[in-house]
């Protein structure tokens, strides 16, 4: 009843706000609300900022205007009956001839026989597809219909099966229609002028429905600047608060016991590890908050550094919490820490979504009475029911996977605990400082001695049989292998291999000799765990996977990594994937299978074969990627931002940081009307509740 009244008032414009729930829209009922929520869309603002991840050029072009392999829309008259022919295993092709001016070309759609009904002999039609210059043929992606629209670009959104692209576009149009006058100009006028930014209202529209490439570029500039500015402000306020708050607690650890612990380790710390341990310990001891980022390549030994910090906390009799993004990773850490700490009578516990109720109850009690020294877990750790006796140290692994909110919620459970963020996506130091606001940064830029570097090669897809033979030779020596594919299932994009297909192919190839498993993001957590477990136990020797494997999987017996369509990934991601092998004492291999079309793609493949140092790779990445390609794919190492990319939009990030630093110290920021929208935006994300009041 109450909510109905509220909605009626909202509809009558009296108190419309961009933060209204999506249900205020006429065609959003309960079902659609739930479907939108799955995409993280709750408010009108969420909806309006769920930007397309890609645009398709639907402006009709002539065949002499386009290049080989370019995606474009062609319009012509259907001059042959469409025929569907079958080939291979369950495959079919729908083809017909299309007359464009004086030329006749062939159009083919693969595995979409149902499109036949849309193609009528003698009628005019527009097809979006990929042009093959040599064959004078178009590999169809979409039938755009007979009428050419006034727009040149069609937006493509990340959605689920429950909401179709068309529906989504309509929802956004409806939301814009009703709320365009309530879109706040978050970036203050002065900055808007200084950086020549278009209005937010214009930008939001053009992000969805650009009428030209230039307009899309301007919309993107505005959006990125706002996003970076809000983020930097949040970071700076956090930082300011930490600096001025009542002194943080000093973790007064026992240096003698700590040294003893380090001596019991089965190896000597690298110089880089020693340096960062010193940096962290100094922070712990100081009565201020540690707010430090620990970055280092996969395998550089961050975990042991974290363990040393935890042990320091133990000797100071405070508790520690380690939060990781996935259950697999949590369990792995549990094993590592338990074996490290068992002899020392340090009590470690694991808390995840699948912890049984009874065990959970017990763990919560022991956390509260201080029996547990270290709790390892997933998001489950930030629930209200989780309370500590004395939480002194919070560590988050793969920090970029968590929102600032989640990290903060965990820290709030202690009285000013020290916080360490770990990330295996090394980025150049200068960039890190800017990207993470005013965090302190520790870098492990060297690998433990004696590691056999991973040997990386690049091969073309036509040599795939050879690749499989090579993999088999490794399997014959008792090792295991990963095969990574960019997608789960067939997509419109014909030349991208998908995990399901590759899985079938490899199962057939290795039949009777080796077991092949399949892992992808649309599987349930339990299914994923089962597959991972069989791989860990070596019941499965070859694991075909999408990039879900990326975060923190550790199977030292896996020595070979094959990455299919490797040019579809950015350097950072390739590097992450490659880091899944080379974790044992056997020689490891990474095979990039790719047919890159662009210079940059070729360059990326080459660089990957030349170095395994993540810091060098990230510097190269910085060099290679110029200003962001508006219509290209977004590949970001740090998915903190919806649109902005800290590498290619570095200039904007730096500008935003400078402006934020000034604003945070300005007397007028908290009172002046011109900053009201910006204040609300920062507050809305609830990072600093209380900061402004
Ligand atoms: P990261 O978390 O940075 O990916 P880990 O901490 O998991 O890396 O370390 C990878 C492996 O290297 C582990 O098996 C660990 O025991 C080992 N290791 C860590 N530091 C050293 C060192 N200084 N010398 C030899 N091996 C080390
Ligand atoms: Mg790690």
Automatic annotation (TrEMBL):
SMART domains referenced in this protein's UniProt entry, alphabetically: DEXDc (SM00487), HELICc (SM00490)
Cite the Helicase ATP-binding domain residue spans from the record: 283-444
Query: What is one GO biological process annotated to this record?
Result: DNA repair
Q: What is its EC number?
A: 5.6.2.4
User: Which Gene3D superfamilies does the record match to this protein?
Assistant: Nucleic acid-binding proteins, P-loop containing nucleotide triphosphate hydrolases
Give the catalytic activity. Answer: Couples ATP hydrolysis with the unwinding of duplex DNA by translocating in the 3'-5' direction; ATP + H2O = ADP + phosphate + H(+)
Any one GO MF annotation of this record: ATP binding
Please tell me whether the keyword Chaperone is annotated for this protein. Answer: no
> Nucleotide-binding: present as a keyword of the record?
yes
The record's section on InterPro entries has:
ATP-dep_DNA_helicase_RecG, DEAD/DEAH_box_helicase_dom, Helicase_ATP-bd, Helicase_C-like, NA-bd_OB-fold, P-loop_NTPase, RecG/Mfd, RecG_dom3_C
- Organism's domain of life? Bacteria
Keywords from the UniProt entry: ATP-binding, DNA damage, DNA recombination, DNA repair, DNA-binding, Helicase, Hydrolase, Isomerase, Nucleotide-binding
Ranges in coiled-coil conformation: none
Where is each Helicase C-terminal domain found? 463-628
Q: What does this protein do?
A: Plays a critical role in recombination and DNA repair. Helps process Holliday junction intermediates to mature products by catalyzing branch migration. Has replication fork regression activity, unwinds stalled or blocked replication forks to make a HJ that can be resolved. Has a DNA unwinding activity characteristic of a DNA helicase with 3'-5' polarity.
Q: Which family does it belong to?
A: Belongs to the helicase family. RecG subfamily.
- Protein name according to UniProt: ATP-dependent DNA helicase RecG
